[in-house]
Design brief:
The protein has helices at 13-25, 56-59, 77-96, 102-108; strands at residues 2-7, 40-45, 61-65, 72-76, 110-112. A hairpin with a 6-residue loop joins strand 3 and strand 4 (72-76). Helix 1 (13-25) packs parallel to helix 3 (77-96). By secondary structure, it is α/β, with parallel strands linked by helices. The strands form two sheets. The protein has a three-stranded parallel β-sheet with strand order 1-2-5. Strands 3-4 form a two-stranded antiparallel ribbon. The longest helix is centred in the last third of the chain and has 20 residues, at 77-96. Helices cover 37% and strands 21% of the residues.
């Protein structure tokens, strides 16, 4: 299985997530077919040191809903980073993958570490 490693502390979140999504889908390969799952694994390290430009730490908001009326919960990027910074990366990459049946399979091949990758 082909493995690619990205460092979240080197470039802004959106640029890094776009590159991760392209590699997960297999678009970097010459024999790309959109219906095939390629044997590719992506590892993202240093999610605690994500880069967001401007005032996005305070203004960017993540939402979740329980399904009940009036139960829309909102959390800022700054609070999400303190809770679990891996969720910020996962949501960014998920938003850049195609909205079809392959999305969950591709996300299972994404591994996110808060610090540097542990030694194997």
């Amino acid at each position: 299985m082909e493995t690619h490693i990205f460092d979240a502390s080197t470039e802004p979140l959106g640029r890094m997530a776009a590159k991760v999504a392209v590699v997960l889908m297999g678009k970097h390969r010459p024999a790309f077919e959109k219906h095939r799952k390629e044997p590719i694994r992506v590892i993202v390290t240093e999610s605690d040191r994500i880069l967001l430009t401007g005032k996005k730490w305070k203004s960017k908001t993540y939402y979740r809903h329980s399904g009940y009326i009036g139960n829309l919960k909102a959390i800022s990027a700054e609070a999400m980073r303190l809770r679990d910074s891996r969720e910020i990366v996962r949501r960014a990459v998920s938003g850049m993958l195609p909205k079809n049946k392959l999305r969950n399979t591709l996300l299972k091949r994404l591994t996110i570490y808060r610090k540097t990758m542990p030694e194997a």
